[in-house]
Amino acid sequence: MKTEKIPLISQQAIEDACEWTIMHGVAFRQSDNTARHCPFSIAPMTMQRDVYEHLLKVAPLITNLISSVSEDHDFLQTTLGDMAKADPFFDRLMSLHLKAHGDINDRRVPARQPLLLMRTDFMDDRRHGAKVIEFNGIAAGMAPFGQRATEFHGFMKNQWPEIYHNSLEANSATPVDNVGLEQIAYGIATTARKINTDLNGQRKPTFLMVVQKNEDNVYDQHLLEVELQKLGLYTVRRTFEQLSSQLSTGDNQRLMLAGVGAIDVVYLRAGYQYIDYCAPELNESVCCHTLSQTRLFIEQHHVAVNATISQQLATSKSMQMLLTMMPAEEYIRWGLNLEEAQLVKSVLADMKPINTSTIEWFNTSANKQEWVLKNQGEGGGHCVFGEGISDKLSQLVPEEYDAWALMQRLYPHEREKATIAVRDAQQTLVDDLVSEIGLFTAYFNGEPVTQYDGYAGYLIRSKPASENEGGIHSGKGILDSLTIID
């Protein structure tokens, strides 16, 4: 369908919009410590109400499932062993998991308690309906930006109503409230108070965010910290490198941070790639040993952790593939009933393991545009599309196969109206914009810890359909929000 055109808007409106985003922290830090606004759409996307309500129902069920899978350590070790051998980073994670939990013959229970802050990303495919793109169980951030994007579109509706309504696909569309920042903070604060109370804490509950060195996405993180401070928490930020010399063990196996005291919640916004554990000045014979051991040290203490090592394994692409391929009835072992299991299955897109028979099938029989090749990497830049898949498969050796998977490629609805995207204070008319929706959830020790039965808001990222990478950081993605129609 050809999209309806809308005119470009005044420079005054663009300046107002950009200043609003900067003023409300919707920005990236530049290397010179200035701020640059995040790219954004001028008005929200539209989704059918029944699709949205289906995702609202299924997202907490997925988190409930992943929460149980992540604590089934026998299952993790027996099913992910081959993938770990094929991927050096996950091999390190698996070795940490073995040290923390022991093997099947010598199972141990580390002192940490699991806090699963998860974002499940979906696309609403034109033919197959809404399907999962991926599970994000570590560094699953941007809930603050998600809520701010919804608030920004509310600002545009009030201050620039003509521009806003001209950009909407349907004037009957209803904006969807977004509580991402508030509910993630609520879940963390609830967890921190419980840990603090259970261990007879003598001071404010304390929250530690593990961050990357010199990263640019600090404002999204600080928005969460400010919200936690409003809820009575003390917040601190450290890199793994800093923590390697600042952590110790206190009474009752408490995790102690030098100069701060006991920690109640550890939230990892780093740790999903090797570089987060790399400290060249340590001159280690085994790369990243010291800083990865710091992560293990954290889990050996009475502290709530997101993401635990096992949560990261349970939200890997390989686990997504395994859960996709197994019958719904098998989910019952992790506490779901059959109806809930079938709901989860309804949003899982087809996936296939990489082996010689799959490669032969793909090269001779498959419609190559219907598939995407993924490795275990988080964030953008880890997917191969179309004809490039055969080229990549020919370069893999059999020992690498288990680190990769084929997944059904999703083709979401394009907007029926061209949309203005704003990047670096410049507007562009995009006539093929598509969106993905990430639903946030929060569970502590397997139980929901939000005011909405585990649901905790959403993040919309949109991109031109012609672009493969839709990340706000690493691709052509823009922040967006949601309206629904009947």
Automatic annotation (TrEMBL):
Q: What is its EC number?
A: 6.3.2.3
**Keyword field:** ATP-binding, Glutathione biosynthesis, Ligase, Magnesium, Metal-binding, Nucleotide-binding
UniProt pathway? Sulfur metabolism; glutathione biosynthesis; glutathione from L-cysteine and L-glutamate: step 2/2
* Cofactor(s) recorded in Swiss-Prot or TrEMBL: Mg(2+)
Top-level taxon: Bacteria
Keyword field contains Nucleotide-binding:
yes
Glutathione synthase substrate-binding domain residues: 206-314
Which residues belong to the signal peptide in this entry? none
Presence of keyword NADP: no
Q: Which InterPro entries match?
A: Glutathione_synthase, Glutathione_synthase_a-hlx, Glutathione_synthase_C_euk, Glutathione_synthase_N_euk, GSH-S_sub-bd_sf, GSH_synth_subst-bd, PreATP-grasp_dom_sf
Family (UniProt): Belongs to the eukaryotic GSH synthase family.
Can you name this protein? glutathione synthase
Q: Which organism is it from?
A: Vibrio algarum
